Amino acid sequence: AASAVAPTVPPPPGGSADAARLAEARISSGKSVAEVAALLAPPEVSAMGDFAAGMRVQYWSDSKVRWLEAEVEAMRIKDGAKVYDLSCKKGVSSEKV
To answer: What is the DSSP letter of 91?
Structure first.
């Protein structure tokens, strides 16, 4: 009986061989190549330069007087202005991201 062989997936640009091994493991576990590609792809940025959910960003904290690492959870409009919900704070003005 022939055994199933998972297709070899090259590492993403700028990625590592570890990422390729992870991709092969995911494919052999039943994920499609498209699903693996989506998992390995960087979060998308819209043509307007918006930060997408899942992106790692830096946020200027007035209270700590320094840049903090954060993850974008969502982008929304509040009182006519674009704001971001970050992992460390909700409703952050786009000028501070």
So the answer is: S
What is this structure's pTM?
Answer: 0.50
β-bridge mates for residue 69, sequence order: 58
Give, to the nearest 10 degrees, the angle between helix 33-40 and helix 17-28: 140
Number of H helices, E strands in the chain: 2, 4
CA–CA dist 32, 70 (Å, integer):
30
25: alpha, beta or left, given left = phi > 0 and alpha = psi -120 to 50? alpha
Cα 97 from Cα 83, distance rounded (Å): 9
Nearest-angstrom CA–CA distance, 17 and 35: 18
Tokens 């640009």 — which residue? 13
Per-residue pLDDT of the chain (97 residues; tens, 9 = 90+): 444 454 444 444 445 555 666 666 566 666 666 666 665 555 554 444 588 999 999 989 888 888 999 999 999 999 998 999 999 999 999 889 8
